[in-house]
Design a protein that fits this description.
Radius of gyration: 20 Å
Pfam family, one: SBP_bac_6
GO molecular function: metal ion binding
Number of domains: 2
CATH topology of the largest domain: D-Maltodextrin-Binding Protein, domain 2
Helix content: 40-55%
Number of helices: 12
Organism: Tistrella mobilis (strain KA081020-065)
Structural class: alpha/beta
Strand content: 15-25%
InterPro entries: Ferric-bd
Keywords: Iron, Metal-binding, Plasmid, Signal
């Protein structure tokens, strides 16, 4: 089955499921849901298309902004909330803002680890950490097979990573590497990497050939492969990769709580998650979406995944960032 045909099938099936839910429990009158979204325009547009097809009576007003800014706005509006739903942030970040979120257990079946405590948040997508390699810049170096290969002095100045103090994805990478290799591993990595202020600079600079390799997220690298850059390779490290799930949540005291819950169910559905994945390559939290058939990416079950305690990652953040600051300062 071709990718377009499979995607159409998933969307039609998901639309039928959403429609059946609406008939049995939702009013026919028009509803409005205010969505605070930190996702890019491609993701938002893909979602709105599915909502329009599946629930034409549900109007979605989208307020766009950065993750931190939107969460702080929700916090500031706590006495008189204006948002119904927030989409999306890493689980540790959502935990930090738990006081302004409302529990809701989606009617869509998701893996247990994709649902927050008491349904406080719902998984939207899962970031898989990879090595993004530009094979035109290898210059005689072997293609890295794992994280430890980047410790080789031959890679000095040829690997780029985001600043974990500013980037949640970069922090997930550094935290995972710290769990795997300890302080000694971070010291070896710090001697070779170039730290950039924004995580987006990582994949952009590797794609442009400024660096041979970057530590980044699967979807970021896959976008260039899908765009036709044959020199870009995704390496799933032999030692194992780290996952960084992101979630969405109903806002506590939401002005339109039923519409918020209805929209969240649609967002978690096969149809919406398949459409968003096809538009952005963000791996869905809904594991019924076949990422291999749509984009040729490996199934999570076929990857070596190193378990990361998201609560511990949040709790240890200051300590791990202090260690990283020390080892990078020493490496200068």
């Amino acid at each position: 089955m071709s990718r377009p045909t499979l995607l159409k099938t998933l969307i039609l099936a998901g639309t039928a499921l959403i429609g059946s839910l609406a008939v049995t429990s939702l009013p026919a009158a028009a509803e409005t849901a205010v969505l605070y979204a930190s996702n890019n325009s491609a993701a938002v547009d893909a979602l709105l298309k599915v909502v329009g097809d599946a629930a034409p009576d549900l109007e979605v007003e989208v307020v766009r902004g950065a993750t931190g800014a939107l969460l702080k706005r929700i916090e500031a509006e706590a006495a008189a909330p204006e948002a119904d739903l927030f989409w999306s942030a890493g689980f540790p970040t959502l935990a930090a803002y738990g006081a302004v979120l409302a529990p809701y257990h989606t009617r869509v079946e998701l893996p247990a680890d994709m649902v927050g405590p008491d349904g406080l948040w719902t998984g939207a997508n899962v970031h898989v950490m990879v090595l993004m390699v530009n094979d035109r810049r290898l210059d005689g170096r072997s293609m890295p097979a794992g994280w430890a290969d980047l410790f080789d002095p031959a890679w000095k100045g040829q690997v780029v990573i985001g600043d974990p103090a500013n980037s949640s994805s970069a922090y997930a990478q550094i935290y995972g590497l710290y769990q795997l290799f300890g302080r000694e591993g971070l010291e070896k990595l710090a001697r070779n990497v170039v730290v950039t202020g924004s995580s987006s600079n990582v994949y952009k600079s590797v794609a442009a050939g400024e660096f041979a390799a970057g530590i980044t997220m699967e979807y970021s690298a896959e976008a260039y492969v899908a765009g036709g850059q044959s020199e870009i390779r995704l390496v799933y490290p032999a030692e194992g990769t780290f996952l960084s799930p992101e979630g969405m949540a109903v806002v506590k005291g939401a002005p339109h709580p039923q519409a918020a819950q209805r929209l969240l169910d649609i967002m978690a559905s096969d149809a919406a998650q398949a459409a968003i994945f096809a538009a952005t390559w963000r791996r869905p939290a809904n594991d019924r979406v076949d990422v291999t058939a749509i984009a040729g990416l490996p199934r999570l079950a076929d990857l070596t995944v190193i378990a990361v305690d998201q609560d511990a990652a949040a709790r240890d953040r200051d300590q791990v960032l202090a260690i990283w600051q020390e080892v990078t300062a020493a490496a200068r």
